[in-house]
Amino acid sequence: MLSEKAFAAIEAAKKRYPDPRSALMPALWIAQEECGGWLPREAMADVARVMSLEPADVQSVASFYSMYYKAPVGKFVLEICHNIACDVLGARRIIDHVRERLGIAPGETTGDGLFTLKTVECLAACGGGPCMQVNSRYYENLTPERVDAILDGLRAHAEAGAPPPLPDERPQPADDGDAA
Amino acid sequence: MPEVKILRKWVHDPEQHRMEVALSRGYYQAARQALTEMKPDEIINLVRDSGVRGRGGAGASCGMKWGFMPKEPTPQRPNYLICNCDESEPGTFSNRELVEYDPHQLIEAIVISAYALRVRTALIYCRGEFLFGYERLNEAVQEARERGFVGEKIFGTDFSLDIIVHRGAGAYICGEETALMDSLEGKRGHPRAKPPFPANVGLYGMPTTINNVETLCNIPHLINHGLEWFWSMGTAGAPPEEPQARANWIKSLGTRKSTGTKILSVSGHVKRPGNYEVVMGTSLRELIYDVCGGICGDHDLKAVIPGGSSMPMIPKPIAMDVQMAFETLQAAGTALGSGGVIVFDDQTDIPQVCLAIARFYKNESCGKCVPCRIGTDWIYKLIQRIVTGQGRMEDIELIRDVCINLGGERMMDSRSYCPLGDAAAWPIIWGGLKYFQHEFEHYIRYRRSPVGAEPALVGAH
Ligand SMILES: Cc1cc2nc3c(=O)[nH]c(=O)nc-3n(C[C@H](O)[C@H](O)[C@H](O)COP(=O)(O)O)c2cc1C
Ligand code: SF4
Ligand code: FES
Question: B424 C-alpha to center of ligand 2: Å?
Answer without folding.
Answer: 10
